[in-house]
Write a structure and sequence with these properties.
The protein is mainly β. The chain is built from 1 helix and 9 strands. 6% of the residues lie in helices and 54% in strands.
Length: 128
């Protein structure tokens, strides 16, 4: 059991997060209702926070954070447990759309009290 605990602290068998969106194309100002899917690893882990950033990537692969959402958590995720946490977000109205080379993604990070972070990226299309 102790070995599993230390191995999970290095990312092997650690809990995971996945942002599940209802679709991949959105209009500026549109509201989306998705959820974070939290999946427990091989040992119990205490959650600290979930950060979700809307990031713009330009044609030179330079990233710029447009907006950030943080959810503070202080609960434990049991081994192999699965939880859903609602995610409601409004796409900003002022986004650059129909510009060649501009893309958007949600970068999600689940931070634990101990151990590594779980990361997830979800590309979206913003259309006029």
């Amino acid at each position: 059991m102790l070995l599993r605990k230390y191995v999970s602290m290095f990312g092997v068998g650690a809990a995971k997060i996945d942002l599940v969106l209802p679709k991949t194309s959105f209009h500026p100002g549109e509201s989306l209702n998705g959820y974070f899917l939290l999946e427990g690893g091989i040992v119990k882990q205490k959650l600290r926070r979930i950060d979700c950033d809307l990031v713009m990537v330009d044609k030179h692969s330079i990233e710029k954070t447009i907006d950030s959402t943080t959810i503070y958590k202080s609960e434990e995720l049991e081994p192999d447990e699965t939880n859903k946490l609602n995610f409601v977000y409004r796409i900003p109205k002022q986004l650059r759309v129909n510009e060649k080379g501009i893309r958007y993604l949600f970068k999600t990070k689940l931070t634990f009290d101990k151990g590594v972070e779980s990361l997830d990226e979800d590309w979206i299309t913003v259309i006029a």
